[in-house]
Every structure is written in C-alpha cells, then in structure tokens.
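Internal ticket #5521
Category: modeling
Description: The requester needs a full-assembly model to guide mutagenesis choices. All entity lines are attached below as received. Residue total reported by intake: 822.
Assigned to: D.W.
Attached entities:
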Amino acid sequence: MSVLDSTTTILASGVRLTVPLAFAACGEYLAERAGAMNISVEAMMLSAAFTSVATASATGSATVGLAAGVLTGLVVGFVHGNLSHRAQINTFVIGLVLNALVLGLTSYLITTEQFTAHQVGVLSIPLLQDIPLIGKPLFSQRWPAYLLILLVPLTWWLVERSRWGLELRAVGENPQAADVTGIKVNVRRRQALLWCGALAGLGGAYLAVGEVGSFNQNMTAGRGYLVIAAVIFGAWRLGRTLLGCLVFGLSDAMRLALPALGVTLNAQLLVAAPYLLALLAMLLFTTQHREPAALGRPFERGST
Amino acid sequence: MTPTTSAVPILELRGITKSYGTVKACAGVDLRVDAGEIHGLLGENGAGKSSLMKVLLGLVRRDAGTVLVRGEEVALDSPQEAAELGIGMVHQHFSLINGLTVWENVALGDNGKVNKQAICADIAEVSARYGLTVEPDARVETLSAGERQRVEVVKCLRRNPQILILDEPTSVLTQAESEELFAVLGRVVQEEGRAVILISHKLAEIAQATDRVTVLRKGCVAFRAVTADTTPQLLARQMVGREVSLGEEAAALGLVPADKRRKDGGGGPEGQQPVLRLAGLTVDQGGVRLLADVDLTVGPGEIVALYGVEGNGQATLGDVLAGLIPPTAGTIEVTGDRVDVTRPGALSKAGLGIVPEDRHHSGVVLDMSVAENLTMKALDKVSGRFLLRRRAMLAEARRLADEFNIVTPSLDAPVRSLSGGNQQRVVLARELSGHTRVLVAAQPTHGLDVGAIEDMYARLRAAAAEGVGVLLISTEFEEVMALATRIAVISSGRITGALPVSEATAERLGMLVGGEAA
C-alpha cells in the first residue's frame, strides 16, 4: 500500500468516525448555548444506536432504523428536559443516571434477541470522489452523512440568526434577565434539549446502522463525552466544535490504522488517545474559553 | 399635562398582598398613578417596593388584591401580559445580558423575525428623540454603568410603554447622568402623557422629580402626598418611621451638604507612619491603562476619600486592594511593610480589611451561614488543626453580631436571607475583626436604606476613632464630604488632586473629576 493510499484510508476512516460526533455536537452545542449542560448525550447516542438496529431488523429498513434512532434521542431529551428543567432535579445527576441506565438496559436487551444486520447505503458523488487524497473521505460516504451539509448551517443559523436562538443565548447567559424580558427560560431549555436529542440520536443511529451495521454492548464507548469535550474544545463556537470532532475522529482512526501499518502500540493506550487529546486540547485552549455564563445553572421563577 | 384626580387613573392597585413564606412583603398596598405624572415610590430596603413592582410586572403572582389598568381589571400573570398592557420597567440591577450586543438585548422580548436593520433603526430613532446615545453593535459587557442604564432606558422606551417604572435608576449614575435621565423622564410625562413610577430612597431626587409620592414602610402605605405639599424632612420621617435629624444622615439623603465646619485632620496626628501607602500603582489590562501611577497614603485614624465618577479606575483599585488582581507596577505598603500582593490573602494578613463594592460577588458567600461568613477571615480562632470548633465559631459570631447590631433570624441562617444593610454589616464586622489596621470601603452604602447608611457612617467613624485608617472609595459627593478628612480625586485611572475637606467645594472637586487641576 502506498503512503497516499494509506493516508486516504486513514482520512476516510477518520471522517466516518467524525460524522456521528458531528451530528451530536451540533445538538450539544445548541443545548449548551441555552445553558443546558447535557451530560446525557451519551445516553441519547447509545439508546438511539440500539433502537435503530432493533427497528432496522424488525422492518428490514436501515432508513426506518435511522428515524427510530432520532425519535429515541428525542425521547431521552424530553425525559432529561422535564426532569431537570421542569422538576428541577440536578441536571448532572440526571445525565449520569440516564447514561448508566441506558448502558445497562441496552446491554441487557442485546442478549434477548438476535438482530439481523442492516446498513444504509453508500452514496458516492461522481467525479468529486476521484479527487486524490480527499475524494474518497469526503465524497464517498453513507448517505445520511451528507445531512451534515444541511444540519450544520441550520444549527448555526438557528443559534445566531433566529429569534429562537437569540432567546436561547439570552437564557444561557442570564436566565433571570431573560425571564424579565418575558422569555420562558425552562421552555427554551427543554426545546434546546429536544434539538440536542434529535441530533445526538441521529449520530448514535448513524454509528449503528450507518457505519457498523449492528449493535454491540456499549458501542458508543464514551463518544457522548467526547462530544461534550468537543464543545468545550470549540469554546462554544460551532466551527471550532466541529474541528474538535474531526480531531477526535482522526485520532480514533489512527488508533484503528496503526496496527495495520505495522506500528505496535499498547491497544489500551490507543483507546485512551482521543480522551488524552481532548484533555490536552482543553489545557492548551482553556484561556480562550467564553462559556455561556449560566451554563449548568438551574433556573427557577421567583428565586434570585 | 397636569395630573387630574377626577379622570380614570392609568394604573390603580387595590389591597395588593404578597408573602414569601412567613414574610409579608406587601400587606394591602393601594396605589394610584395618573397619566402625565411622575409618581415617587419611597421606602427603605425591604419596605416592599420591589415586591410591589414585581407583581406589577407579572414576575410574581400576588396573593390578594386587584390591579386596574385604565379602569379595567387585569390578571397580570406573566411578563408578556404586563408588556402588552404597556407596563415597562428599567431595572435596578440591570436586566441586560452581558454576552449579547446592545441591539440583541433590545430585540429580546419582541416577537417574530429578528430584523437587525429594523431594530437598529428603532434604536437610532429613540436615541435621537430622547438624546440617549447608544452604540447598537457594542457588547454590553464592555459598557460602563451609565451606558448600560441608557441602553435599558432605550430598550424600555422603544416598547412605547404607557407606564414606565424605574427602580433606583440613579444609584450607579453620576450627577450629570442623573440629570440627563430626569430630563428624559420629564419629557416622557409632560409631552407624551405617559406615567412614570420612580422608586428611590434618595429624598432629593423624589423631591425634585416627582409630582406625587407614596411612602411604603414594612409592606404598608405609610404616607401619600402631593410632592409640592411636603418636605424632604417629613418624607424622611415617614419612610424611617422616626425623626431623622443627624447632619450626616441628611447628607446621605442628599438633603444638605455636610457640615464643612468640621475640623480638619480629625484623624491621626501629623508625622505618624501611614497605615496604607500606595506608590506608583499601575494596572494595565488588555492594552488599557486602568490605573496610572497612583500614589496615596492613609494615616492611622484618618478617613481618606477617593472620589470620582464611576468607571475611572475605582473598581480596579478595589480589586487590587482585595488581592483579586496583581498590579502591573507599583507597591502597596501596610503599616510600613511592603506586601507581596501575588500571594493570596497577603493583604489581609498584613492587616488590610476590605468592604468590596459588590458585596454579593466578593463580599459574602450568600449561601453560607452568618456565623461562617463572620468567622471566615479568623479561622485560626475558631478551628483546630483540622476541625472547626463550632462552639467557638458561634461564640465569636455572636460577639460580632452583637457588636455590629446584625439582625438575623439565627447565626445559622444563610446570609442570603438578610437585608442588604445587614449583609453589609456582616462584611464590615468580619473585616474589622482581628488586627485590621486599614479598612478599604468601596461604595459601602450602595443600595442601602437610610438607617443602614447612618449606621455605616457611624461605624466607619468609630473605626477611625480607634486608629484604623479608612480609605473610602465613593462616587457620592455628600458621602465623601460627610465622612472624609481628606479627599483625593480619581479621573481616568489617575489621581488628579487631593484636598483637605475644608478646602473642598463642589466646584473644585468637579474640576478635578473632570481631569483638571483645581
């Protein structure tokens, strides 16, 4: 294998591993701008991965599986939103509980039945896919990946240009002041979590019925946490957040590719690489952070 | 337009009652406001003014009572409903969102598409009509207090409210900015026939600006009158519920300038070693020189005031003296010893106590108990090597609470539950406990009621009498005249001059504030 070929392979695999992160990161980014620190993005991804495989197996359609995944993410977002931004239970605790619950539940459910594998199709863009080096990685992906071209600008526009997004940002910066201007703070946060749930669900489902074609126990393996790290890495800017996803995706691809290239490194160390990289990135870029001032702070009417 | 009592009032409140737990914030308050008048709402902190206005804005739901707008009963369940009824408010603690730009803040609370051009045009129109200059694209966190206030007013007026409520609007404004604001309000009521409710505890303001006045005390209406028929002294008495006679109290209320006959150098004798000496103190931040070569000394028993318009480096100096930011250059000496300000707590160990400008932010820990807050700086006294000695802590806290007359349901109550005046006493008690030789008091009476201001003045004087050097950072002319023995003036981060109080006049200080030698 030539150097060019192996580089293309690693890039292609890196992009493939980035796509699920990127979907979920768009959601998490929007939720955090609204001040909703959404730890349960892992639960959203993992549960969606499971239901997408189960639904695809039952219906015979990977696309329906994908839709089921989005729906599952929405449900998790709905549950999280109502518990933490209606019932006012600590959002971090809920996130951790949901993550543990979904991990346990899917680990159990996977043992109860055999699922037949289904995978969404690859869509190669003619001509563009023949560009050397980046052609295959960027223009020969499974079709839902191209949804990013739509969803990334849409997320940006929603946050930066729509009234809804302006209100979200206000809620994330200063919920008391937002309340005074008549914005329903907790409603906006629950809505933000629904958006996050749908996109994280899409990311999880893409991982399962897109890339892998089946469900394994704990198949997201902390990708939800990587998504949160990417938002921090991106200093709550969408472009940099997606760059963070790409960095994490590529480092994951390196891990998979290195043994094939004849480099022998401790496998456990390689698994840890993206996380170490995330830590390092946060350490290096920490001074540039401008996080939403009310991130993770609950809001209750009438209290100061 | 003159207010007529026969017409249907634009706003009428009947028997408004609101309780928080066992505390009755408002107990059957009646209020009547006519179009075309500025109605003063006067009361000490905790008198129920803010609760009443929150009810009016739909931010909290009343327990009982009726609200009539133009004679019609309204529910007022949400801020949206209040806005639709034409009730708008300029808040005391700004309701602006720091991370957003001016125009984005103005756009909040609108409906429909976000149209930057339209909003900026509105802002320009309102700005021009009232002479309130604002920069639509500026991020709010970069604006000064006065500029933020202007944004608030523009934001509120753009909604075209028929009833405009202002909560302590001048507490962070300079004299000139206040006058500008009242000029705008005058136009709002006289030319446009709106109604204004002005909440304040500054009697001078109420006396000058309002047509009628309602005084609240302990959640009830204590007094109401046509402003012209009353006197500030009478209003003060109604507000406090007792005679207000002390000169400095009157000065605090802005009634009279302080007694200038007070003898000079009431503090320490000449030639004594200063307890605080700042030499060449300079702070650069983000390419901006916030403090430039500040030299200042405070002798034992002396009260030195640092007077100036807000935003001229006082906050930075306060942060430096609190040890929050290290100076770029210059030295700080406490009782003759140079202090290494890069070490946390070094200034405090050296004997410097500070009542910070923003007590919620850096003065107290709101959710910790009164006892914990009081003993925070003297943990050696109340703990062993590892464990707190709760009994000792409570005893020490009890002693301080008694000495400083802190009113609290219990020493275990969170500081959050105390009134502003009592919170400030907690800070002062803690900072004066131990071996404090110099006390820095930054805007110590901001947002306090008359009684608490009087108390604060007495305590600062008492501290000076005991030989503590006091550095009073203040923007209130009457306050520095009432308290200080020497007045230094800061302008654009630079000390422009210092005068003994006997030579200080409004004109001379005004020149210095403007950056010119007097």
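Resolution: model delivered.
Comment from assignee: Chain B touches chain A through 26 residues (CB under 8 Å).
Ticket closed.
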